[in-house]
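Q: I have 225 residues here and want to know how they pack in 3D. Can you give me a structure?
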Amino acid sequence: MYAVIKTGGKQYRVSPGDLLVVEKLDGEPGKSVAFGEVLMLGDGDKITVGAPAIDGASVTATFIETRKGEKIKVFKKIRRQGYRRTGGHRQQESVLRVTAIAGAGKEAKWDGKVDLTTKAELNARARGLDFATLNQPKVKTRPVKAVAAEPKPAKVAKPAPKPAAKAAPAEAAEAKAPAKKAAAPKKAGGAPKAPAAAKNAAPKAPKPSNVGASAPRKTAPRGKK
């Protein structure tokens, strides 16, 4: 027995025990979901078509999980304008397990057990990973090195300073008095001053300079060559 149902603006052909992936629905894992909009029922050669839905027909399913679908790429381009944009999208979807179909005086049930294991956990198992540890947030920790406490060095008593010997009072006074600079001896009478007549003496004649003067030419006496 099978049925055609409508949900999320789409139509799905389902049978008892089928795994159904539809647009996102509100629900929690393990709860039952009923679809009342059944468009068609089929049982062998007998087909019942609704107008548009079959009165009293319903499809029951068990909610498993809500997850993100496969990623699709969205590419936009305007030619001769240098415009190109690439994006992506992952649609939210709900996963259900069809358990029963009822309508047209008949009912078909699935006798299996619904497994609530999510797809992410199945993928982790296939890769040999632990799903519980993958969901835990990563916390960065710095390793702490254990440092042994060093013993403090023992305090050594310092020897007492020896008392300085007292100096004699006369020597102490001489040591405190600043040393005076030795005064240079004055010359007796001082240097003699030059007489005033020597200052008023006539200046000496300047020496003739030979700059620009040419040497005298030697000329032969007349009549002789």
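Q: Anything worth noting?
A: The first strand starts at residue 2 and ends at 7. The mean pLDDT is 81.
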